[in-house]
Structure to design on (206 residues):
């Protein structure tokens, strides 16, 4: 069994998870150490979907379209707000992935969950869900929500050179980010990726 196979990842996510320590190392400037959700905060679910592409484990990110309001144009995991008909946040993450990427989610195997993360600018409490499918999905991105589909080798997340420090898009102070090809992945998405990366490392991934 290799470190990036589903059984290894499932064990890595059984914890203890690095949580706040992982979030802090990728926190953007000015973010409180552990901001508390407002009473009217909304719930959201995002899916960290792992799958084989040419026998190599990958995960998928999207570049959001520019008109989507908070976090428009940013690199994100597929996901969105919880709707009244969703049984739980796992159902939310799967539904949103299906709506954004046009994939069949019935075969997604739940590997575990990451630590809940509050995002003050959008007032969302985000619940990251990690899933796996045994075959590369056929993606049909929703052009209304997805400007670009980004398939990322999972090993890239474990490469120390991928985590960098530099100015955010549009200028401003330096911030930590993941360099994924031409994209800078920062903010909440980088914090989620950081926890997943650290969980794998803590479990012995190389």
């Amino acid at each position: 069994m290799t470190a990036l196979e589903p059984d290894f990842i499932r064990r890595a996510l059984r914890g203890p998870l690095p949580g706040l320590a992982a979030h802090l190392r990728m926190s953007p400037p000015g973010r409180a150490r552990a901001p508390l959700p407002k009473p009217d905060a909304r719930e959201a679910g995002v899916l960290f979907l792992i799958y084989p592409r040419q026998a190599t484990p990958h995960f998928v990110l999207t570049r959001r379209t520019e008109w989507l309001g908070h976090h428009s144009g940013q690199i994100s995991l597929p996901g969105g707000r919880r709707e009244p008909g969703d049984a739980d946040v796992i159902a939310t993450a799967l539904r949103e992935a299906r709506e954004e990427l046009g994939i069949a989610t019935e075969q997604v195997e739940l590997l575990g969950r990451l630590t809940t993360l509050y995002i003050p600018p959008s007032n969302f409490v985000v619940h990251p869900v990690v899933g796996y499918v045994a075959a590369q999905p056929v993606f049909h991105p929703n052009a209304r929500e997805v400007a670009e589909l980004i398939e990322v080798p999972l090993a890239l997340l474990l490469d120390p050179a991928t985590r960098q420090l530099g100015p955010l898009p549009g200028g401003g102070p330096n911030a930590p980010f993941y360099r994924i090809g031409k994209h800078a992945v920062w903010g909440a998405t980088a914090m989620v990726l950081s926890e997943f990366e650290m969980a794998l490392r803590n479990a012995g991934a190389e």
Notes: The CA atoms of residues 163 and 178 lie 5 Å apart. The first strand starts at residue 42 and ends at 53.
